[in-house]
Amino acid sequence: MINIEYKIQQLSKEVFSTQTKQKRIRKFDKYLKDWGISRLTSAKRDEIERLLIINNLEFIKPYTEDEKVDLSEIDKNSNIVLKYRENIEQNLDEIGKGLIDNFNRPIFRIAQGECPKKPYPFQEEAYRNLNKYFNWKENKKGLLVLPTGAGKTFTSVSWILRNIINENKKVIWVAHRHELLEQVKNEIGKLCYSNILPNKKQNKVLVHLVSGSHDRVNKINRTDDIIIASVQTLNRNLERLKKQFLKHNEEVFLVIDEAHHATARTYKSLINIIEENCNKFNVIGLTATPFRTADKEKSLLAKVFDPQTIFKKDLRELIINKILADPKFIPIETNQRFTKKDFSEKEIELLQSNFDLPEKIKKKIIERTDRNRLIVNHYVENKDKYKQTLVFALDQNHAMQLDALFKQRGVKSEFVISGTQSTIGISRDKEANKKAINDFRENKLDTLINVNILTEGTDLPNTQTVFLTRPTKSKTLMTQMVGRALRGEKAGGTEDAYIVSFIDNWSELVAWQSPEELFNDGIGVDPRPSSSIKYETQLISIELIQQFSHLADSFVDTTKLQNLPAIMRIPVGWYSFDLEYRLENEDIDYKSCKILVYQQHLEAFEELSKNIEKLYKRYDYDNNNILDQEEKLDFLNEIIRKYFDIIEYPEPKIQENDLLNLIDYYDIHRTMPNYFRFEDRNKYDISKLANEIINREFSRIEEADFIKKSWNGETGKSIWKEFYNNNFNYFRNEINFEIGRILYPSTDVEIPEIEYGQNMLEDMPLYEWPPKEYRQMLEAVYEKWNKENPKKRIEKKDRFKYDIDHKKAFNNEGKTRLENLEPLLRGDNKKKSDK
Hints:
alpha/beta; Rossmann fold; six-stranded parallel sheet; 32 helices; 41% helix; globular
């Protein structure tokens, strides 16, 4: 990491001089990078403009008489001059240093009058609950729960300013990404009005940003009103925080952004040191995702926060009230498969270790031209539904390729890219970007394509749809992209929001973030009874699609997997957790991890759960309670050897990377992640349909008709459409696989028997019974019938004319028992069914 302070001093020596009034800057962009400014956004330009004015400085063109430089030109014009006026009395070196200090220590003057931004009624209700909860008579730690898009930052910042800063108390606000820190700072600046802060001393709010991309902890001052910091930076300097801030302030209010991560060691250490050094200490945790079910994750968060939530508002209510748009998730399979053969070992290592896609791999995705055509064709075919669509592309090249294809199909399209020059030489200045954004806002464009410019900060209320054409591991980036379409009608947006994700098959090389997972995390506060079931089926169906891709791949030996009974290819449950991921700039982001657990694996995971604490201690060789890479690999090998290598039939095979993720989670939290049962697993056992086709001896035409009717259901909807992501081919192929497995069992693969207890069979229609039990019952029914009705005896050669029917209807609590079954002529049975 470059020493930013040293570089500032170097700049001040180069730029400022007591002998001249101006100094040429030859490589301004070099200093931007050293200061941690990766992209000179319009907000940063405005900040530089303000700081220049404050310090009596200005940029001018060389060899001219006071012709000021437009800061939008600063990227492409390094040969500019920094001019200063004679009346500067203070040391000019300090001004150069102060230019950057003001980025990290903004002073917000309190404007007179009413704040123009008004809270919604649910936000005012949140204020009342917060006021009631935090009375300062006792130290409390509570959660504020608002779903993605509901304005957590505005709600919490406005309440903090009104009730903490307005009372001249101190605040520490922590998050895991510097973008979140900037977001909080910007929100504070928008809300500094006298009606919110009538009692604030000195009529200003002192804010201090501290992170690897901002200031250092040793720059913290006891007079700072709000310290906005990355949790990891504070955690590395707890003693310094104690010495410079905590011991001087007896009352501190801690805000934890994305508080569902607060069970990690970094947060616990920070909370402990503040609690030990402040007489009055309160904590508010902000989250959209407190726990995924009513009880499972409460136990972890209850160790940090009070079990009772201060205030929560569920997603469904905000959608009903039209504050948020109703998200409709549409996954589109691109049929693009990426395997180890497509990449070098170095590229695979980069792919798995980097948080974002490496440039070389982006290029390989972009080169799949049929993928780009699929994206454009899908929009054209659904244009009336999707309307104004924001497209997130992989890079500048990809954005321009998509833009050209959209225009070829008659779509009014435009793209925006950062900087003034693209990576392939296309000029794009600030004004061109601004015009494209305004045209989209004014409904002059159908699609607007960008890379990362429009993830936050730009107001585009008419956005109906987002196209996610780029994969990401980042929950933060995914939230920002999805959030662009979530503004509801009452907030000036739309009723529905279509979230269209284009899914490539990465053959288990990497697990990308899914947009649905952002909303699944809110299941615990979503009153829709079907929401958890819907998410379960979405989650499992994605895994099944990967299985189908393997089964259809002639280069992969899938004999063992294909010969498993269908029910054994459906997991019994899964582990679900977020895992910390450290970025190059010392930020933390989170990736969502899912470990699917099959019946074959369940006992191994249960035994691992019982013994993981003991095993962990054995492999923490240096007893520092943190595993290094060598220790993790040794731990992994022991787990595989002791628990998974001994599984008699391990297909589908457990992935080593899944077990490494589990080890990382335990290393951070000292507990196993939460396990969720797939409650409705048996509903999706495709063998029931396969057995019915076999047992009823359908002709090929009858079989095809039966499969189509099962797929469509009685009303055009069926559980199979949901489970197979509306892909009929996957559904049909899986039935065919299962029919083949039943009729032509492999002699090379020993399949474990599935035991069906009598009670289980009685609660299933006869055609769903396994073939062996089905034929035994068939023989018993005809034998019983012929014995009781010798004059109406049914010979084997005539059985094709009959169906076996329930005397007491199955859908009227009739059981599949011998005494409740009888043969019935198919014509009569059909009349009975129609009736």
